[in-house]
Amino acid sequence: MKQFEDFRLDTANQCLWRSDVQIALPPKPFAVLRYLVENPGRLITHDELLDALWPETYVQPQVLRTYMLELRKVLGDNAAQPRFIQTLSKRGYCFVAQLTEHTGNGHHLRMAVPEPSATPIAGRDKELAYLQEQIQLLDGGERRIVFLSGESGIGKTALVDAFCHHVTTSLAARVARGQCVQGVGGKDPYYPVMEALSRLCTSSDGETASRILARMAPAWLAMGCNPDAASASATRPAAQEKSLSDLCAALEELTADKPLVLVFEGLDWADDSTLNLVSALARRRAQARLMVLATYRPPKSSAEHPLKELRHDLLLHRLCEEMTLAPLNKPAVAELLQRELAQNELPPGLAAFVYQRAEGNPLFVIALLEHLIAQEILVRRGTDGAAQWVQQVNFQEMEAGVPDKLAQMIELEIERLSAEEQQLLEAGSVMNVAFPAWAVAAALQKDAAETEEACDELARRLYFVKRAGQDDLPDGTRSPFYVFTHGLYREVLYQRQSATRRARRHMRIADRLGELFRGREAGVAREMAMHYEVAGDWPRAIDALRVAARQAEQRQAFADAAELLERAVRIAQNLSGVELETVEHEIPRELIVARDAQNLPTKRPAKASQKA
């Protein structure tokens, strides 16, 4: 049984004991308490708790609040100054009490509330070493402000977890972490600061932190210990602005006996007040063993974004450092897969397939792996220690698709854009991972210059689209082209369009190609054929393939010519009547010529009306 203060959680009998008195709890409140106790010291989100306790049923999140009120009444806990269950506003709960294991014979084994995971992270040794170098500089009293950027899923939180574990175990430093939440910052000033202070005050160093805050910044202590009550206070922002210097001084005082690492995650969602605190901490000149580590997604946003302005100003005055997480390389992806599958030898082709699809993004790697397992493309065979993951399908032959979790995540990002911006990206996806501005304009029937400006603006704002160069067009003009940094984004954008809309846009792009290269259509005939084929315009697709085949023959690329004509024969299976008769009469003769030229067997091909 796990014990906290004079309470014991009896999982065998599904009850709670206080000293020698048994306390009966209804099944669901007991299950909530048990889950929190079995996952101490970390945030348990509302969704995690609901999924764990009601896996097959939709339950209103409000029910958790009811159970928490019941548990606090039984435990005699106070939400404002929690001894057992801490509420992290709008996020979830954390069990903060010290646990011991009650053995039943009068002995108690102390159980430490776990620090962030010590599990090594794949491919981040260099970045972790850099952060460790930064904190070593605190010994000279020089504070450090470090911005850590990277796209969604690139591993910022995993790196921060590993770093925090290092500083708490190896350096005995204090760590206070706060999470910025989308949509909350503007309504709830200092939200991540309040969370960090709350976690600091309930940590193993909570008594020291509370004493210093009570002496030097009492208003912040009151709000840090009760963020929910503070959020409701109408006077909160003004009071805190007035005492910002008090909080800075108190945090500096906390570093007198050991370093303090203040972590703000998701700073791109932070409110102006939190950014003001970061700015103040960076500019103060008092010596302090203080490090602020702030993570954010690349803010490809307007120049007016306050975080962008703050970073640029601090970098200009050499008051901060910045590190960007790059995608994992192929060996690191293989290492991550080995760790997740718990085996050193991976199924043939798995690492290459996942690396190509995920493009080095750790979140995408894990999602793709889970997808392969859920689809039973990867299965576990063998027994006990001899069991191994093996493949059921050749990775090169399978239709990959986009895992549901990733598709939902990407959809959420797309939905945050305006309708016009979504249309631009969808039109670009019709081309491929790389798309020129002229093709977007053609697909949407919009002015080319206006479309180019809109695409440039998107490339400045979005981390998953970037400008990659310019195309020289036959009429002497130039058109910029762009790329999706992840092919998965392109796939989601393409699939979210109706088949009719996609076909219409493919047709417009093919027609525009013909206009741009009038008189030289042979050079783009293969590309035109692809668009016509996808659009379902079979005759024009076949005509374009025959043009491309003739050009291949002129280059003496007879194998290419034969391949193009064979594709035309397959497409012709969709035709009927006179169109089919013409194809059956003409293309086989062209194909025989191409095969003869490359010394291939001259056997007459099957008619287009017959299945190959």
Could you characterize the architecture of this molecule?
The protein has 612 residues and is an alpha+beta fold. It has 5 domains: 2-111, Winged helix-like DNA-binding domain superfamily/Winged helix DNA-binding domain (Arc Repressor Mutant, subunit A, Orthogonal Bundle), CATH 1.10.10; 125-324, Rossmann fold (3-Layer(aba) Sandwich), CATH 3.40.50; 330-400; 401-518, Orthogonal Bundle (Arc Repressor Mutant, subunit A), CATH 1.10.10.10; 538-612, no CATH class. The chain has 26 helices and 19 strands.
CATH class of the largest domain: Alpha Beta
Q: Count the strands?
A: 19
Radius of gyration equals 31 Å
The CATH superfamily of the largest domain bears the name P-loop containing nucleotide triphosphate hydrolases
Tally of distinct domains: 5
Catalogue the unreliable spans. 105-118, 226-242, 608-612
How large is the share of residues in beta strands? 5-15%
What is the overall number of helices?
26
CATH fold field value of the largest domain: Rossmann fold
Task: Give helix % range.
Answer: 40-55%
Basic shape? elongated
Identify the CATH architecture of the largest domain: 3-Layer(aba) Sandwich
Secondary structure layout:
Blueprint: E1 2-4, E2 7-10, E3 15-18, E4 21-23, H1 27-38, E5 44-45, H2 46-53, H3 62-75, E6 85-88, E7 92-95, E8 99-102, E9 108-111, H4 125-136, E10 144-149, H5 156-169, E11 174-179, H6 191-201, H7 206-216, H8 218-225, H9 227-232, H10 236-242, H11 244-254, E12 260-265, H12 272-283, E13 290-296, H13 306-316, E14 321-324, H14 330-341, H15 350-358, H16 362-374, E15 378-381, E16 388-391, H17 404-415, H18 419-431, E17 434-436, H19 437-444, H20 448-461, E18 465-472, E19 478-484, H21 487-495, H22 499-516, H23 525-535, H24 538-554, H25 558-572, H26 577-597
Helix pairs in contact: 1-3, 4-5, 6-8, 7-8, 7-11, 12-13, 14-15, 14-16, 15-16, 17-21, 18-19, 18-21, 19-20, 19-22, 22-23, 23-24, 24-25, 25-26
